[in-house]
Amino acid sequence: MKFVPLMWAMLWRKKLRTWLTLFSIVIAFLLFGMLQGINAAFQETIERSNVNRLIVTNRISLTESLPYSYMSQIESLPGVAIVSHESWFGPYYQDPKNLIAAFPVEPEREFAAHPEVVIPKEQIAALEHMRAGAIAGAGLARKYGWKVGDRIPLHSTIWVKASDGNSDWDFDIVGIYEEPSNRTREDGLFFNYKYFDEARSFGKGTVGWYVVQLKDPRQSAQIAATIDKLFANSPNETKTQTEKEFQQSFLKQIADISLIVTYILFAVFFALLFAVGSTAMQAVREQVPELAVLKTLGFSDTRVLVLLLLQALVLCIVAALLGLAVANLLFPLLRDTLGVVKMPVAVIVEGVVIAAVLAAATGVIPAWRAKRLVIVEALRS
């Protein structure tokens, strides 16, 4: 600790250069925190997927529907506990930017197939008996100030009513659900499939996909194959996956987020490596007389090496922590667009490790040269 003031003085020998270097590292780790944090949050959501559930979609595409009659056939298979279904409603609230994840469902099936959802039984019963009833997630209700008893208008971007050709649908909030195991999924809205199927102008008697709750998750591969075999060579063949596989394939339809993030961060840190490395080399060249004096006063070669490495380490670690701290403060802003609530701790740990590697990569060559410095030659120069 007694050499900290010395190391600090060496670090701030050129204040402007140190500030610029610090700023560039902060920006790099701010970008790292945001991108890698989003990627990690998506992966965490996938990992939390229920291993007891299968998702059955149309083999052609998720946008192609399946007949409602498939439900009884799937439910009759050995090993299946209960079958529910969902369909993408695609609405927005008041403004096209306010997109909502809304699904027509059969309440008694939907919530039985998702036991992790916490909701009072009387609210489920209210949804079953109210034709235009709806149950909203706690996060969605907080965002728009909804409460039980409110009537909300939604405009669907897909479905129109058969009665008037209008895409505006009105729902009465009869319940608020929570999902303590995954708060990011409290942004959905569920309403009655029967009301939806009767009112829509096309696609009657179909659903978007089936959710199959299993009795034993170890039989998931076998039951998935059985379901697909059951509907093979039919007009609507199926593709059955575990919930985790379904989440992964759904994200990859948008983009391979993990690969994109990796490429961007590789480019950023590759450029940063050269920028910080050249700055470190320049700083050590300017410190040659001081280093020679330190060796004259009795500093060993190894101590000089360690001193310069610690100088690079302190700069990189402090800048990385600042960048990650700013990213952590900005992260809650993504809740409304991505459902991401907070930055995973693993990202912060990974960032600190990368900062240490960056310090070692940029500081080892100038530190090694300083270690081999000959006092007489250094003082002569």
TrEMBL record:
<protein>
    <submittedName>
        <fullName>ABC transporter permease</fullName>
    </submittedName>
</protein>
<feature type="transmembrane region" description="Helical">
    <location>
        <begin position="343"/>
        <end position="365"/>
    </location>
</feature>
<dbReference type="InterPro" id="IPR003838">
    <property type="entry name" value="ABC3_permease_C"/>
</dbReference>
<keyword id="KW-1003">Cell membrane</keyword>
<feature type="domain" description="MacB-like periplasmic core">
    <location>
        <begin position="23"/>
        <end position="229"/>
    </location>
</feature>
<dbReference type="GO" id="GO:0005886">
    <property type="term" value="C:plasma membrane"/>
</dbReference>
<dbReference type="InterPro" id="IPR051125">
    <property type="entry name" value="ABC-4/HrtB_transporter"/>
</dbReference>
<feature type="transmembrane region" description="Helical">
    <location>
        <begin position="260"/>
        <end position="284"/>
    </location>
</feature>
<dbReference type="InterPro" id="IPR025857">
    <property type="entry name" value="MacB_PCD"/>
</dbReference>
<feature type="domain" description="ABC3 transporter permease C-terminal">
    <location>
        <begin position="265"/>
        <end position="373"/>
    </location>
</feature>
<dbReference type="Pfam" id="PF12704">
    <property type="entry name" value="MacB_PCD"/>
</dbReference>
<keyword id="KW-0472">Membrane</keyword>
<dbReference type="Pfam" id="PF02687">
    <property type="entry name" value="FtsX"/>
</dbReference>
<keyword id="KW-1133">Transmembrane helix</keyword>
<feature type="transmembrane region" description="Helical">
    <location>
        <begin position="305"/>
        <end position="331"/>
    </location>
</feature>
<keyword id="KW-0812">Transmembrane</keyword>
